[in-house]
Amino acid sequence: MAATAVHPDGFLGYIHNVGDRPESSQPITYDSTADFGVGAFLLAGSELAGLAR
User: Fold this and answer.
1) What is the C-alpha to C-alpha distance for residues 14 and 24, in angstroms, rounded to an integer?
2) Considering the entire predicted model, what is its pTM?
């Protein structure tokens, strides 16, 4: 996940922007980012770490 989505400057890409419809922020690209994405990324990482045990 980190090799694909994290930019060299620390920004996180492939994050769907906040909107009232999914198509409001399409297409999602490497440069798409939003504030809540970091929390989702960390939660996903902690779940993957739990599966590895």
Assistant:
1) 15
2) 0.67
